[in-house]
Design brief:
Layout: H1 2-21, H2 28-57, H3 69-100, E1 105-106, E2 110-111, H4 120-155, H5 159-163
Antiparallel strand pairs: 1-2
Length: about 180
């Protein structure tokens, strides 16, 4: 639960910083924000790797009984896509930084190796890839939240309450 919400908060932060930074003219503030954006992206990737490692030894709780097979497939596929994007987006940003000639220096102290040589055409392509992956993640996150709310409000099962334990469990059959 902690890893889930830490990654969620960092994704909101990275997305917000990135959206704001692209609107700025080149300045020390813009460079600082891009550095923060990169640090958050690397941290997200590291936490996702930790979370995937955790999942190897701690399987996710079973899906609620009565979920239709198609819902189970969609839930599983969505989680796979979320994990994939949460790794692919930081890597695409790192590749874009490398191709742009801007190194990634984690927290300003740990230089990460360039993944590709400086190449403006490649940097431009990777910028589009990074943008498209982020838009895809945004859509998936909206669907993920909508599904969690559907489970809580309509299905009245424990899906949301096990991720937000302070919520009261919903009793099937009781009106809101």
């Amino acid at each position: 639960i902690t890893l889930h919400w830490a990654v969620a908060a960092l994704v909101v932060g990275a997305f917000s910083i990135g959206l704001y930074a692209v609107t700025l003219e080149v300045s020390p503030l813009k460079l600082k924000l891009y550095s923060w954006h990169k640090w958050v992206g690397v941290t997200i990737a590291l936490l996702v790797v930790v979370r995937l490692g955790w999942r190897l030894w701690h399987p996710a709780p079973p899906l609620p009984p009565g979920m239709a097979p198609w819902e189970q497939r969609v839930a599983s596929g969505t989680h796979v896509l979320l994990y994939t994007l949460l790794l692919a987006i930081p890597v695409s940003g790192w590749l874009m930084s490398s191709a742009s000639g801007f190194p990634v220096v984690y927290f300003g102290v740990l230089p990460l190796p360039d993944l590709v040589a400086k190449d403006k055409a490649l940097a431009d392509t990777l910028k589009l890839v990074h943008y498209a992956l982020n838009k895809t993640l945004l859509v998936l996150v909206v669907l993920h939240v909508a599904a969690a709310l559907k489970h809580h409000v309509l299905d009245r099962d424990e899906v949301l309450t096990r991720m937000l334990p302070f919520l009261k469990p919903r009793t099937p059959g009781k009106e809101i």
